[in-house]
Amino acid sequence: MKIQPNLKYASSDEWLLVEGNIATLGISDYAQEQLSDVVYVEMNVSVGDIVKKNSTVGTVESVKAASDVNTPVTGKIIEVNEALSSTPEMVNSDPFGAAWMLKIELSNPEEINDLMDAKAYEKYCGDRSH
Amino acid sequence: MFIPHSTKETEEMLKSIGVKKIEDLFDAVPKEHRFPNLNLPAGVSEMEALGELQEYANSNETVHELACFLGAGAYNHYTPAAVDNLLRRGEFYTAYTPYQPEVSQGTLQAIFEFQSLISNLTGMEVANASHYDGATATAEAGVMAYHNFRGKRSKILFSEAINPQYHDVLCSYLCGYENIQIVSGSNKQDPFAKPDSLIPQIDEDTALVLVQYPDFFGRIFDLTDLAAKVHEHGALLGVIANPTALGLLKTPGEMGADIVVGEGQPLGIPLSFGGPYLGFFATRKEYARKIAGRLVGETVDGKGRKGYVLTLTAREQHIRREKATSNICTNQGLIALAATIYLSLVGKSGFKQVANLCYQKAHYAAEKLSALPGYKLVNSDPFFHEFVLKCPKPVSEINEFLLDQGILGGYDLGKDFPGLKDHMLIACTEMNHREEIDALVECLAEVAHD
Are B363 and B437 in contact (CB under 8 A)? Predict the structure, then answer.
């Protein structure tokens, strides 16, 4: 399992890359491993939508399960990765890179403080695998 | 598979919820109402019961004895005897929905063939394993369109010339949805408005435009322009199609439909007092993940042998739980199989011939009837096997007379459309011999004079 050091993590296994007041969101390597082969990604939001913290923004479906993607932050959607709907397997091959899902303009930047850093997330994942 | 609880398990469950015996769970129902005296007559023997039921059955008049000109959504077609024979094979007849689908290769293959036939017939890329009937398939089209736009488009625009019952079921299915409006393209007083008259009402809030082909009154319109306008506004075009007509006409797919649904009853399913019937649902590949129900696919196994799998159940409850967009978890398996056998038996040219016979007979009848004094053919548009006849008397009165002559008359349109009092919708199929049609013409001439 890979963990990217510069990211923030949510307990529902999304990662956030925060640059200024823009956050990029995806799901973690741990999450894609649990899901196994991803066959479908659907974002339920479009550019311009306002999303609330902990709301569902999309769905990732694998050969094993269908799982929701939640946003751990409140804000406005400014970009959606459209490429994922035709190449969902990128979630398995490059979860922290090409398989980013959304870019969100943060309305409440302090919400970031509620998220785990890489070290805390690594422990969180480790605890769950035992 | 049904797994009953053992006595021990039942005891454990009762104990954990703090109840002594099962009867205690019904404490809320007053004792005197639990086993009320139903005041039923004394039991009869099987022989007596059969006799009594047979007597009831004998008072039915069916299309086997009557000349039938009633359509309006259910049609009296010929079903080759082999359909019923094959259908009643135990392997098909006793099987319910495949819970461990890949074990039921025969069932899956039948569904796959059904899907392929419906796709071909409608000119669409994918068809699902079926729905209950045309009305519920139509409602699912509304549900799919709503979810396709994630509830952001609130309008379903329908033509008044769709089956009024389908409209009612659509409204029932969607009544619990937030901010959905089901908007009429015209008003009840103008049910004959043509599909293109919907165009000015399509906007960016429109999720689905729903028309029927041929429409409820039998008329055929080219939907190409309508489809283009629907797509200009980013909406979806839903077409309710008669499968028999598709044997002869341009497919809705060719005209740009996004969803094609319909009633599969004309495909070898007996009228049987209204059911069980068969809904079909087809769409474009890009919407494959949005459709309710299930899709069966053909594949190869590890040794390269052909096999069938339940490819997609993207919206079903058992995989999506509360995220499901439809409560459909099964399909109309046996009836879909009947339609599959029917289409295979009649074949491509036979099916076309059936459609052509329906068309020709209806046109023969329309020509004769419109020449009768007092009667008038209401529409001048091209039609398939059904047409509207304005009558000199109330339709109910005429139909009573016809029934005495062994003829099941047409549909009384005044029931659904207040403006169409004394208007009869007459359907012809390959089952109507020339003599039957001539008899209908004679009877209608006679009743006009009374």
Answer: no
Mutate to test the interface with B, among A51, A61, A62, A82 (most CBs of B within 10 A): A61
- Total domain count for chain A? 1
Given a cut of 60, whether residue B1 has pLDDT beyond it is: no
Structure confidence by residue, pLDDT tens digits, B305-318: 999 998 887 666 66
A56 found inside a domain: yes
Give the right CATH number for B81-342 from 3.30.70.20, 3.90.220.20, 3.30.457.10, 3.40.640.10.
Answer: 3.40.640.10
Q: B229 CB contacts (<8 Å, ≥6 apart)?
A: B199, B202
Smallest CA–CA distance, residue A75 to chain B, in Å, is 19
What is the pairing mode between strands B259-263 and B236-241? parallel
Interface test with B, best of A59, A63, A67, A84 (most B CBs within 10 A): A59
Write out pLDDT tens, residues A31-62. Answer: 999 999 998 998 989 999 999 999 999 999 88
Structure tokens at B38: 């139903």
| Interface membership of B319 toward A (CB under 8 Å) | yes
Task: Give the residue on B whose Cα is nearest the Cα of A67.
Answer: B320
SS3 call for A127: helix
Establish if A3 belongs to a structural domain.
Answer: no
Chain A closest-CA separation from residue B320 CA (Å): 7
DSSP string, B376-401: EE---S-BSSEEEEE-SS-HHHHHHH
Query: B67-78+347-449 sits in which CATH class?
Result: alpha beta
CA-to-CA distance for B445 and B263, rounded, in angstroms? 33
In a domain, A19, yes or no: yes
Burial of B32 (C-beta count, 10 Å sphere; 0-12/13-18/19+):
exposed
Structure ipTM: 0.73
Domain harbouring A29, CATH code: 2.40.50.100
* Residue A76, beta-bridge partner list: A50, A105
For the ranges A21-25, A93-97, B98-102, B313-317, the lowest mean pLDDT is seen at B313-317
Domain coordinates of chain B in residue numbers?
A: 67-78+347-449, 81-342
Task: Supply the range of the domain harboring residue A94.
Answer: 8-113
SS3 call for A20: coil
Contact between A68 and B320 using a beta-carbon 8 Å cutoff: no
Backbone angles phi, psi at B18, to 5 degrees: 75, 35
What percent of chain B is modeled with pLDDT above 90?
76
Nearest-CB residue to A40 (from B150, B289, B323): B289
Q: B245, B357 in Cβ contact below 8 A?
A: no
Is position A58 within any domain?
A: yes
Q: Which residue of B has its CA nearest to A56?
A: B323
- Whether the CB of B285 is below 8 Å from some CB of chain A: the reply is no
